[in-house]
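4.2 Preliminary Data

To establish feasibility before requesting continued support, the project team ran the inverse folding procedure on a target of 340 residues. The structure was first converted into the token representation described in Section 3, and no sequence information of any kind was made available to the design step. The complete token record follows.
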């Protein structure tokens, strides 16, 4: 499914997390002020990343390390294959090259976390095979990317001092002791500013931990205004049209078993959703009985839509796993038209 937008409006860690959840394969291209970075993902992993900036590329890393000279750079630029040149002329073996591409990829990804502007587009299409594909879990990259952030104003943009946070999900097992310490300060009553004052860590470090935990959906913002039932019903109707279309598409190809397949994917999604969604099930027409949970909604419209997107992504993935990528593309194209 194609996604595009601006980093002024979209939280970059949340964008990566959504790609991890949807298990999509494709290229996320981000155009910044002075460079363009492409991040290639597949099934929840980052497999490669490139940059238009020479310093971010493998040859730039080798030059900075003193591994090659500027004269060699000139020779590389005259050759079509950087990898072949480095192996044949500089004697750099596969193991070292893989380490270099690992460093290049992480460097490219991590720097985007501090970008406060830039246009992005994700294309869910096949890309050429890389000689040294990596398998970096997207969630791990998000964790380390936020840990390395320096742009305080960007964090505050998405995590206001007045935001009240509460525990929503289970903490990750790879959290560090100081991150668990900050998590212990969250009680559902204190706002971000009060947590930073109470914390014995620096303000910046405390903010980064809260931002990290929010991006991983361990913490959630309390929303004062709960949308009226009529607004929720309108949104539910639109999403249910998409859900029914997916069900009909599957049913047409595989028959009644379509219901069992979609129920499985819906159940998997519900495990990570608030209690209000526990009773959601598939109806006979393929829509979800979302009307029954309206009275239990205690969060805002934006989060409600985000949760429905998770159901939609899961059902589209069910199509991909059952009928293949070509049929998935047809379903995604049709749904995009329905949502215009």
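Position-by-position output of the design step:
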């Amino acid at each position: 499914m194609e996604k595009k937008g601006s980093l002024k409006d979209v939280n970059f860690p949340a964008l990566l997390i959504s790609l991890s959840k949807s298990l999509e394969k494709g290229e996320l291209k981000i155009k910044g002020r002075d460079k363009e970075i492409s991040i290639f993902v597949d099934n929840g992993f980052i497999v490669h990343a490139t940059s238009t900036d020479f310093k971010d590329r493998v040859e730039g890393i080798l030059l900075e390390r003193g591994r090659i000279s500027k004269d060699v750079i000139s020779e590389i630029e005259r050759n079509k294959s950087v990898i072949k040149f480095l192996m044949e002329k500089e004697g750099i073996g596969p193991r070292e090259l893989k380490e270099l591409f690992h460093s290049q990829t992480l460097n490219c990804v991590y720097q985007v976390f501090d970008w406060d502007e830039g246009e992005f587009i994700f294309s869910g299409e096949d890309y050429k095979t890389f000689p040294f594909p990596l398998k970096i879990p997207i969630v791990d990259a998000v964790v380390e990317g936020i840990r390395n952030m320096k742009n305080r104003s960007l964090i505050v943009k998405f995590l206001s001092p007045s935001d009240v946070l509460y525990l929503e999900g289970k903490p990750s097992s790879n959290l560090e002791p100081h991150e668990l310490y900050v998590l212990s300060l969250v009680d559902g009553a204190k706002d971000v500013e009060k947590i930073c004052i109470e914390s014995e860590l620096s303000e910046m470090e405390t903010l980064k931990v809260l931002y990290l935990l929010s991006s991983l959906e361990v913490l959630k913002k309390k929303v004062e205004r709960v949308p009226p039932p009529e607004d929720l019903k309108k949104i539910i109707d639109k999403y249910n049209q998409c859900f029914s279309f997916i069900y009909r598409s599957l049913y047409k190809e595989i028959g009644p078993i379509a219901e069992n397949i979609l129920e499985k994917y819906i159940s998997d999604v519900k495990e990570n959703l608030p209690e209000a969604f526990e009773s959601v099930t598939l109806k006979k027409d393929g829509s979800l009985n979302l009307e029954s949970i309206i009275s239990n909604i205690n969060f805002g419209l934006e989060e409600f839509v985000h949760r429905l997107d998770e159901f939609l992504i899961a059902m589209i993935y069910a199509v991909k796993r059952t009928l293949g990528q070509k049929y998935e593309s047809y379903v995604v194209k049709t749904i995009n038209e329905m949502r215009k």
